[in-house]
Write a structure and sequence with these properties.
2 domains, alpha+beta, N-terminal domain of MutM-like DNA repair proteins, elongated
């Protein structure tokens, strides 16, 4: 599933490609992609004549800000957008087509068919599902250490599933949680409440650094991700631990192991990320 850096890259690419274009008409070829409104014909009609003002991101969601509406799009497993000439042949698994007045066409393809689109009157999208319950944006100025500490520090949940919970922090999927925990030298099964202030500071810094580094190179193309121009991301070449099971740790040389934490495949260096059982006394914070 595309995570924050990949969705951010798609957002930036689409802004370069389609901002300012006017929608002439829309064709929905797979109705279940459209979650709101229920009437597919209404979705197509409401978008006619709408100008694309900008593309924004909230967590792993894209926000197409139009003249009067906002379309919220989630790519899920393998959804992707691409800009085509209007007479280009349709590729397999093309489910929604946005035809512009200049003759070009934005096409949404999705092999797995798990992606979703919601259309809201402008200003209402942040007060309703699916965006209303999302947590902190880790690349936003509001993602301060204190804000991070307030949502993490006092919870007894294991740290990895907590970081994956979009109600607390958005956009950090499996790849970037493993990478961030490795950089911070924290075992993914540690209880969040056991982390010292210093460990929380290291983790906060590691999350920001990992996501920023990935955004700079266009995200990670582990399986099928490409941006709106068909280009792959390059961060997979910089991964320290994710996908490197049975290989030597870049830091200590010991073997990286793969296990399951919170139902997700998890990569750990047991030397660099020792599991400390029980609660840690935070003497330095008293």
């Amino acid at each position: 599933m595309p995570e924050l850096p990949e969705v951010e890259t798609v957002k930036r690419t689409l802004n370069e490609l389609i901002t300012g274009k006017t929608i002439d008409h829309v064709k929905v070829r797979l109705p279940r992609i459209i979650q709101k409104p229920d009437d597919i014909q209404q979705f197509e009609i409401l978008l006619q004549g709408q100008i694309i003002e900008t593309i924004e991101r909230r967590g792993k969601f894209l926000r197409f800000v139009l003249s009067d509406y906002v379309m919220v799009s989630h790519l899920r497993m393998e959804g992707r957008y691409g800009l085509y000439a209007g007479d280009d042949p349709l590729e397999p698994h093309t489910h929604v087509l946005f035809r512009f007045t200049d003759g070009s066409e934005l096409r949404y393809k999705d092999v797995r068919q798990f992606g979703t689109m919601h259309l809201f009157p402008k200003g209402e999208e942040l007060q309703q599902a699916p965006l209303v319950k999302l947590g902190l944006e880790p690349l936003d100025e509001a993602f301060t250490f204190e804000a991070f500490r307030n949502v993490i520090a006092h919870r007894s949940t294991k740290i990895k599933p907590l970081l994956l919970n979009q109600a607390y922090i958005v956009g950090i999927g499996n790849i970037y949680v493993d990478e961030s925990l490795f950089l911070a030298r924290i075992h993914p099964e540690r209880e969040a409440s056991s982390l010292t202030k210093k460990e929380l500071m290291l983790l906060h810094e590691a999350i920001i650094r990992t996501l920023q580094d990935s955004v700079e190179v266009g995200g990670s193309s582990i399986k099928s991700y490409v941006n709106g121009q068909g280009e792959i991301g390059l961060f997979q070449h910089q991964l320290n631990i994710y996908g490197r099971q049975s290989q030597p740790c870049k830091s200590c040389g010991n073997e990286i192991v793969k296990t399951v934490v919170g139902g997700r495949g998890t990569h750990i260096c047991l030397t660099c990320q020792p599991l400390k059982r029980g609660r840690t006394t935070k003497k330095s914070e008293k």
